[in-house]
Protein 1
Amino acid sequence: MKSLPAFDRLWMPFTSHQDYEDCPPVVINRGEGIYLYDTDGKRYIDAVGSWWVSSFGHCNPEISAAVKAQLDKLEHVMMAGFISDATMELTAALSEILPKQLTKTFYSDNGSTAVEVAMKIAIQYHALRGSERRAFVSLGGGYHGDTLGAMSVGAIPLYHDLFHKRFKEQYFTASPYCFRCPAGKCSKDCDADCMNSLAHILEQRGNNIAACVFEPMVQGAAGMRIYPTKVLRQIFDLCRQYGVITIADEVATGLGRTGKMFACDHVGITPDIMCVAKGLTGGYLPIAVTAVSEEIYSEFKGDHLASNRILNHGHTFTGNPLASSAAVAAIKLTRENALTESARASMAHFSEMLKHLDDRAHISGIRSLGFVGAFELVKDKNTKQKFPPEARVAFKLSQKALEKGLILRPLGDTVYFMPPFNVTAKELDEIFTLTKEALNEALASV
Ligand SMILES: Cc1ncc(COP(=O)(O)O)c(C=O)c1O
């Protein structure tokens, strides 16, 4: 095992440090397309887009060129009294792709802050209208980031339970988890029964609830839980009925990832507020958007004495020009490549390859939408019985895959793939071949 100087100074996110004692992190020093290379020159396929951001592969020549050009012009200017031309260009580019009703764009730095901003806007909007709505409702299994506000609407027990005690009024629905449907149905006979829980909460508490925060079509961190359009429609319908603002967290699903520009496009409904981040710069630099309807924004208008109408929120790096230039280039690539016939064909091929895994023992719950694909490892396919946690099957699978040069990062026992839009059939073939080999070896060791 190679020693990593200064590794003992590091506190790594989302990982048990005991694992790092046996398997230290791989030090990467180069990327190209779907590949990453470690300091020894070993090649790895990045099948998860480095936490779902790398939509056009690593070191994409067009995004790199845009950032390099910006680097010699301006690295940063505060976004108060000033704004960079790059950020103006980004705002114009966004206006071409965002739903027309979302007329205002607020910038922050990452997915969590995009959600925080949306939540603050929702509370302040209601306050400005003389209403005391301060609570939020969100979906079981939801994940919206790791800052406190974003965590308050998250519902993954491992991440959130400890912290929920801090928050007064948050409500959670059942999770739209089709593989283990709370109503015992399958997606074909789905009647959005899981959202009866939302109806119930809104009936009881609707008057106190400022907004509903949800991941449209795919609950990412919960394990790529892809749910039917019927459920999403029901969320919108119920929220509208109770005057609850809809905050669509498109941080992971936005910008073509699910086969539409935004996941809400699957039902053709525009939320009141939309959060976008991750793929926005194709994985280059952090920047996020909270896009807001004119109706909500209009409550914030007022003369300079109406200080209660100011949205008192901002980050030092808000609207950073380097990130903006990367985002402009990534949006151009998204428009040119992510929603084309050939992208659709590639997504269909991806979906077919996933389905072929169904003949394997212990693989179940295969699902995909656009370029999000996943399956679950189960002990018994007939009963969907889980492996005991101590078996660590998915972890073993990811370790075996890593040895073979494939990067997977399962969520619990869910193994998922998020290839870039320009992935080739050959690369997909390699991903699935290596996954199968790694799975055989991991299962043999259980
Ligand atoms: C749906 C969703 N919202 C918000 C976030 C938080 O984004 P960030 O990690 O950039 O803060 C994530 C991150 O995975 C996400 O998947």
Protein 2
Amino acid sequence: MEINQLLKKGVDMIKDRKYGNPVLEATMVLEELLNVDRVHIYTHGKDGVSEDVVNKFMEAMEKRSKGYPIQYIIGRKEFMGLDFYIREGVLIPRGDTEILVEYVLRYIDEKYGDRRVNVLELGIGSGAISLSIAHYNRKAKIYGVDLYSTPLEVAEENRIRLGLDNVSFYRGDLFQGIEGLNMEGKFHIIASNPPYIPSEEMDSLQEEVREYEPANALDGGEDGLAFYRRIIPESKDYLIDGGLLIFEIGYDQGKRIENMMMSEGFKDIKILKDLQGLDRVVYGVME
Ligand SMILES: C[S@@+](CC[C@H](N)C(=O)[O-])C[C@H]1O[C@@H](n2cnc3c(N)ncnc32)[C@H](O)[C@@H]1O
């Protein structure tokens, strides 16, 4: 079969999905299977494709037609200009999370310049946040914690692929993960994109997320704020004086999390919006 014919077949199989981009997605899968770039696919439409590739492609399109996320099919996702390996069991990193990473990088640059800073990330997933900070600031020392084995395995694989030696990952329930490291009062920054979807909204998420992404990366308890409620007071034991606590948040959680931080004594609390104009990040300084 020719590339063009195969692509058309694939697009037809997934074109009725509500979320997605059928031509792009079918092309991405073929790029991966043929190990060529997009331009090659578009300029070699008449080339023949082996039966093995046809079978694998059809299998992938079949999965995609049932809502299986394209990023799990191709096994990667770009984040902050870096290529992250991902698989089922870790959250697919979202573009909006780059807002938090960009803020942290700018903050380190402006406040600490070339000095070494310690950063703690709680809930690492694929390692997207920790590893991007580590990649773009080689002087920073990053500690990343997750409670589950798949994120820890995937993040470590990404650390190796990106060749970073300024990041270490630990297993545990939030701050328990770094117990015994003697890091109390030593973090310049604590960052987290914790699970923040209210439990009762889990069933109404789009199929791609609801059926295939890990619930323990998404479910933030009854009102979605369970993790903030734990992290905000505990972070005070681990931050330096003047240290920064920064979160990704749900679009309607800004005010409530700001209030929680205020009542724990955090100062200079600000909310950053995403490209859609929705609350996305909140941060504050411990005095
Ligand atoms: C929303 S995901 C964020 C993943 C990644 N940081 C990102 O932004 O793509 C939340 C992460 O928190 C982890 N997590 C959930 N409960 C946790 C706990 N009690 N302690 C540590 N990590 C936890 C999940 O496994 C998941 O990787």
Protein 3
Amino acid sequence: MPDLALGFDFGTSNSALAVVEPGGDGSPRLLALDPARPGSTLIPTLLYIERDGTRHLGYAAIDAFVRLETGRTILRRQVATTREIDTVFGRELVRIDVDVNQPGRFFQALKSFLADDSYQGTNVFERFYSIEDLVAIFLGEMRRRAQEELGQSIDRATIGRPVHWAENDPAADALARGRMETALRAAGFEEIAFVAEPIAAGLHFARTLDRPRLVLVFDFGGGTLDVTVMRVGGDRREVLSTAGIPLGGNTLDEDIMDARLLKYFGEDLRWGEQGLPMPRQILDTLRHWYTIPLLNDTRMLAFLDSLGRETRQQRQVRALIALVRGNHGWPLFQEIERAKIGLSKVEQESINYFAEAIAIHEPLPRRAFEALIGRRVRQAERCIDGALAAAGVEAGEIDFMLRTGGSSTIPRFQRLLAEKFGAEKLRFQDAFISVATGLALSAAGERADLLTAGADRPA
Ligand SMILES: Nc1ncnc2c1ncn2[C@@H]1O[C@H](COP(=O)(O)OP(=O)(O)OP(=O)(O)O)[C@@H](O)[C@H]1O
Ligand SMILES: [Mg+2]
């Protein structure tokens, strides 16, 4: 019996694993991976490492973070440590800021850091973890759980990859792919194949078609938008083109923060005799939940304190200090995401976050959300047009427009697709598992049928 190969969708927000078992009807089976949600075949791509080295994944990572960190007052202390300066002079004594009662470290959207060469890794208490180490911890634990569920050792994986990890940057793409490969090997996989995520979704969809049809797959997830034009159905499995950009649901959450919530943290305040604005670089740091903690150092907090004394908008400064010191960045972004997801169903939502000095009540009508993501809709349209052009196909020739990925549920993007291709051509495939099932099919041999004709094909 050939070894089983895993179809592994390592997503920015969610991961899923599937296999095609020998002797069955050839349909992929999804694995249950998160003991904190026993019925679910999806696991949030999250990792929490406690001070003592204990690791939590998925929902358990959220539980640990909320239990141990949210609202915790950060206690900064300067400690003396040595730092390597160079190989000739050896080490020097430096003083650094340390959060002395930090219980653990939380990692989200690890996949988005793979293409970032300025991010090598991080210290988790006394130990350095490279980005590859962090990803390998997640992949390795997923492999272990899959092996336990299937009752056998698994050394082969077909893993999804975005069409492009970075925009117009082949070096960053190569870096991400290399890091992913290193992490997969460290996790114990010996035989590895990469398949672009939208192609995997297309393979899954192909099984529903009895004759060749022209399909455009629009896979809009948490970190990237990935598109492919394929001719599939019957025995045909042909990729005509692929295209992708690093635009995902996380970008939209950041856009909401940018456009609607910075005012709660001093965007409009004036301070000092000259009526100076809030430094732009501080506001930029608030755009990502994971950069907010960078403001948490003694000098910055002292600056914010003095700013608070020199402005009439003290409430905003107190809110900003609470955001930074109380570790509220991540839970605030969770609330933004909740409201954004709500807007896919209802016309009106509001973002509510009350903690310490933070008091946010921000109504967000769908209309306002659509206005603030207008630029993203145009980027998505350009991406689709690029895929059509590379395939040499007109929008009108597409038989089915398949959307998948969590963000493809957003009504504004559905409208874009309906306007471009006709509402009657829109098909939807389970937003969260179609890539994993397609990867399992590919791992079981479908990949061999892929013929590539188009440009912009990832290496
Ligand atoms: N109903 C919804 N409406 C709008 N957005 C949603 C909805 N459900 C999920 N999302 C968003 O979808 C994203 C997650 O989707 P998904 O799980 O497909 O991404 P992923 O596969 O982890 O990421 P990627 O493929 O980009 O690496 C998140 O940004 C989430 O906020
Ligand atoms: Mg995905």
Protein 4
Amino acid sequence: MRSVRFVTFGCKANQYDTQLLRETLRRRGWTENREADLVVINTCTVTAEAGRKARQLIRRIGRETPETRICVTGCLAESEPEVLRELPGVDWVLGNGEAKRPAHFLRQIGEEVDPEELGIPSGITEFAGHTRAFLKIQDGCNKTCAFCIIPKVRGRSRSKSADELEVEVRGLLANGFHEIVLCGIHIGHWGLDLGQNLAFLLRKLVDIDVFDENGSPRPWRLRLSSIEATEVIPSGTGDSVLAVMAEAPDRIAPHLHMPLQSGDDETLVLMNRWYTRKEYLAACDLIRGQLDRPAFTADVLVGFDGETESRFVNTLNAVHEAGFARLHVFPFSPRPGTAAANPRSLSSPAEVRDRRARLSQAASEVELIYRESLNGARETVVLEGWTGLSGRYQRVTVRPEDIEGVPPAMIEVELEVERNDSDETRLIGKPMGVEEALSQ
Ligand code: SF4
């Protein structure tokens, strides 16, 4: 029996791609094992660090177990195939186009493929080691942000059809998942190539009902992964993601990860982003007007080419104004092959360190304010034991004394902010009644 080990770097889309290959090989009798015959390394190239770690791992496997065959896939395989092919132990370097179609992947690694296998389902049915399933709805991106290599290595947006995705969602729900995270490279571009839009897909998916063996409806929800603020709100007269979220608050988590990148208009232009600080903040206000205390999370880049102290302060202020529930702060590192590969005016490492620290401090402050604003809010929590992740992306604890017997997988609660002697807060979920939670 042949064995495989998967190692995944990077984003949710990459994790989905790995799961697709995992199920492809498992159907053919492969087992998963740490000491495997084949190691598939699904790489990322979004930062220089991600590439360095992947190369380091490949070298280590090649050195320690030279008999292991190595297949490198993913974005690094797309951006530097020649470098990877030279590394010891590497047998295959498969770019994103070659590795993402199961039959193609099998042929590349020397497996015989029966003609009927060409119709192998191109979706996943589970998500190894996770309580939430990541479902990739599209790949690629039609934008050209100056710091980003992704459009070069993933190409333009290609969407999976709404019918295929419905089948995939039903399969994941049947296998017990309570939360499905719709992910991709630029999910707001879903449907552009099909003459549809993301709101259309969401309307189709929120209508899916699943039932347990007693015929009772089983609660479940969708969550959107990263989506641009300008693609949540209505543009023109068409349907919008926000409209569907407002109509189905129990089916779509009120959490939006909307990359900010910078809160300074001049920097946004240099980054080739397409919105102003005012437009981003106006989108937050509009969403807040339609959803109950939505959680906004975001990415911000520090030290981008041309960043001055006053430009940075604009970003710092925008973080306070947006009122994020969580902020991810990344230092800018120029990537070869991008428009910002040759910066002209970089801040010093000490300045970048200082700005990162100030942004992280601001993030802690706004995160606390947001958490405290949730006192009394109704939430659904996907539990793993006595704690779990709420729709608003908060870790919530349920007390054993509030529940009879084993905790359910998903429960509706009212939130209570609890503060300890050291002034740290945590969120307690007071069950609204398991019966009620299950009857959603
Ligand atoms: S929107 Fe910009 S940052 Fe996001 S994947 Fe596309 S080019 Fe990269």
